[in-house]
Design brief:
By secondary structure, the protein is of the alpha/beta class. It contains 16 helices and 10 strands. About 45% of the residues are buried. It is found in: Periplasm.
Length: about 325
């Protein structure tokens, strides 16, 4: 009789434990669909959050897809194909400028500088001067996108008119820019990691400058969603932000080698040493945000960059398109 009683109690305990565990990424977990604008070591903390189970710890089942290009990512968000977009903060401003009734709100910053590097085909870092760009063929990025705007902002800072002082190529799809440079197009190109490190190892060029260092702090890549989604899913957005903050802290307190190991499943065709050098390069220039909160000074710098590029209709206050409530709670 005693044995039966213990067995029943044991079974009840197992059921209770199973129920508790199901709230940590099990069948009762809340599904969140993320659309990332590209696959890049630039987004290392996001992959750490996935691989280390930080989302699951918060009771979230996160599905990640790559929606190449800011325009496609925003279309996916606005249409409801994804719940959260990881894309440049400028896209939320574009939506706002179009008079959207359901504005897109930035709630968790992932990167705080430009993630592109200037690569020269025939020069090394010690031989490069910004004046060398004058008269050259420059393989740029899409007009209105953050890489191109931050790139032009930097060039102007060094006294170079992107439209008049060099031959600027902008008609190549983002996903094909690296391949175009590898095939011989352009003397200079803007590239993200790990592509920059790969090309250096293959002898196809040398990184001679960092647009991240040159253009200053920016809310370069941010998790954002529609205001209506936030209104209906505040708890989910908070849990999401908590997981991102855990990942940001993890990356800051672990070596590039450890981070490379964690994100390797998302870069199966990239050698470990390339991942390590890419992470190290981003850490050294302070690219990865240490907190998900958006900074007002960095936001104003973004507005300056957009204004310089002729893409800003009016200056928008941070509070209109960013909600730092979730980030502040996560940090606490």
């Amino acid at each position: 009789m005693l044995f039966k009683r213990i067995s029943v109690l044991g079974l009840a305990l197992v059921i209770l434990l199973a129920g508790a565990l199901s709230g940590c990424g099990g069948k009762d977990a809340k599904t969140v669909k993320i659309g990332e604008v590209t696959r890049s070591v630039f987004y290392a903390p996001q992959y750490v959050a996935l691989e280390k189970g930080f989302f699951k710890e918060e009771g979230l089942d996160v599905e990640l897809q790559t929606t190449a290009g800011g325009d496609k990512t925003m279309t996916a968000l606005l249409s409801g194909a994804i719940d959260v977009a990881l894309v440049g903060a400028e896209t939320s401003i574009y939506v706002f400028q179009q008079g959207a009734e359901d504005p897109v709100i930035n709630f968790a910053q992932l990167t705080q500088t430009d993630g592109t590097f200037l690569m020269a085909r025939d020069q090394e870092a010690g031989d490069f001067d910004w004046e060398d760009l004058k008269g050259s063929v420059f393989l740029g990025q899409r007009k209105g996108g953050m890489p191109q705007m931050a790139g032009e902002f930097t060039l102007k800072k060094h006294g170079i008119d992107p439209q008049a002082d060099l031959e600027l190529i902008q008609n190549i799809e983002f996903a094909n820019i690296a391949a175009a440079f590898a095939s011989g197009t352009g003397q200079y190109v803007q590239l993200f990691e790990p592509q920059a490190s790969i090309f250096e190892r293959e002898g196809k060029g040398h990184v001679v400058a960092s647009f991240g260092t040159e253009s200053g702090k920016l809310p370069y890549t941010v998790f954002m969603t529609k205001q209506s989604y936030i209104n209906k899913n505040k708890e989910t957005v908070q849990k999401f932000t908590n997981a991102i903050y855990k990942a940001q802290q993890w990356v800051q307190t672990h070596t590039p080698e450890e981070t490379a190991e964690a994100i390797a499943p998302y870069f199966k065709d990239t050698d470990k040493d390339i991942l390590v050098s890419s992470v190290k390069r981003y850490l050294e220039q302070g690219t990865y945000a240490e907190s998900p909160a958006l900074d007002e000074e960095a936001w104003n710098n973004l507005l300056d960059v957009m204004e310089s590029a002729g893409e800003l209709q009016e200056r928008v206050e941070l509070g209109k398109l960013a909600d730092n409530e979730f980030a502040e709670s996560a940090v606490k």
